[in-house]
Write a structure and sequence with these properties.
Number of strands: 12
Number of helices: 16
Number of domains: 1
CATH superfamily: Metal-dependent hydrolases
CATH topology: TIM Barrel
Radius of gyration: 19 Å
Length: about 375
């Protein structure tokens, strides 16, 4: 299967880009267009490492491909720097939605940390409202082109700071004004969900859903903490859950696997895994298994019945799209349209939406794949 320069490919005669998709793990500050970075940086007299958009895209790709989450996260210093004004946040959010539409996404959840966007005087509330304004502008523009999309905010707290309870209350305050869920992000190793137990207790008392970054830069204890301390309804990445699986034997295509209690719980409860193949390679999240996409435990998790979903994590850093991630997986593991549909249905079922709206989303995906 040939993947073109835009990351698209034809599968069974169908363009993957044309298929309806659901994006659950997509960072706002990880999806800023390089040209937008250059223009916004110029407005605030900020130096950028490259003045040409293509060269800047190359810079992000090179710096992100380090095998370390800590090093990977340093590239966000540049993107967050140009997202400190209302105008900058609104523009980035609007373009983010436009890029989702171009990617064939019909429902997306965009995660971002308001506490990282206050350097030029915005309040937390003003930052949330600026992003929501941009989202709505993007949705309205799509509607004028007869393209349906809905995007919700995942309000995120940084796990290495002490503002998580404040951010949790912010998320709940905006639950009817764009916010659909909560997350903690940032350096995972050494900053377990237990440090934010007060925030998660508050969210639980308000029946507000949470997804938690876990099982990326840290292992099984991080995932346990996400489920027990964070009451996570989804696992952000969760790829290292495969450490709780022991391959006992292989015979041809048949693999006998012994489950640990944690892996069995996640599988049996159908807790969605927000897997991001390209990002997982860049950050070294799959180092225990190898360094290529063929080594990624995605297919093992899928074949064992886990609720796997496909995500981009950070479009700019990984120079990718949901279309490209699906094309790479299809090429690597010989998936067909039925497999790609399962991934979208898993994501729709795990979306932070009321059940009626999830059922509607599932119907949209089914109709789109049938066509």
């Amino acid at each position: 299967m040939a993947i073109d320069q835009h990351g698209d490919a034809a599968l069974q005669g169908v363009s993957i880009r044309s298929l309806p998709k659901v994006s659950l793990h997509d960072h706002l500050d990880g999806g800023v267009r390089p040209q937008t970075i250059i223009e916004l940086a110029d407005e605030i007299d900020l130096d950028v490492p490259e003045e040409d958009a293509d060269d800047l895209a190359d810079w992000f790709a090179e710096k992100s491909d380090s095998g370390s989450l800590v090093e990977y996260l340093k590239t966000f210093d540049l993107t967050t720097a140009v997202m400190q004004t209302r105008e900058g946040l609104t523009r980035v959010a609007r373009e983010f939605v436009e890029d989702l539409v171009a990617d064939g996404v019909v429902y997306g959840e965009v995660r971002w940390a308001p506490e990282q966007h206050l350097a030029r005087g915005l309040s937390l509330e003003e930052a949330v409202e600026a992003v929501q304004e941009g989202i709505e502008q993007g949705e309205d523009a799509a509607d004028r082109r007869d393209r349906d999309i809905r995007v919700g905010q995942l309000i995120t707290a940084m796990r290495h700071t002490d503002r998580s309870l404040e951010i949790a209350k912010l998320a709940v305050a905006y639950r009817d004004r764009g916010a659909v869920g909560f997350d903690i992000a940032g350096p995972e190793d050494g900053f377990p969900p237990s440090k934010h137990r007060a925030a998660f207790d508050y969210l639980a008392s308000e029946f507000f859903p949470a997804t938690v970054h876990a099982g990326e830069a840290a292992g099984l204890d991080s995932i346990r903490g996400a489920l027990i301390d964070g009451r996570a309804l989804r696992l952000g990445h969760g790829v290292r859950l495969a450490e709780d699986l022991e391959v006992v034997s292989r015979s041809g295509e048949e693999v006998l696997v012994e489950f640990g209690d944690l892996a069995r719980w996640v599988r049996d409860r159908e807790i969605p895994l927000e897997l991001s193949p390209s990002s997982n390679l860049q950050t070294g999240a799959i180092a225990a298994w190898g360094t290529t996409l063929e080594d990624h435990p995605f297919d093992l998790l899928y074949q064992l019945g886990f609720s796997v979903t496909v995500n981009v994590d950070n479009r700019t850093m990984s120079r990718t799209s949901l279309t490209r991630e699906l094309a790479l997986l299809a090429e690597t593991f010989d998936y067909d349209l039925d497999d790609l549909e399962v991934f979208q249905l898993n994501a729709a079922a795990g979306a932070f939406l009321p059940v009626e709206e999830r059922e509607e989303l599932i119907a949209i995906i089914g109709d789109g794949f049938d066509r």
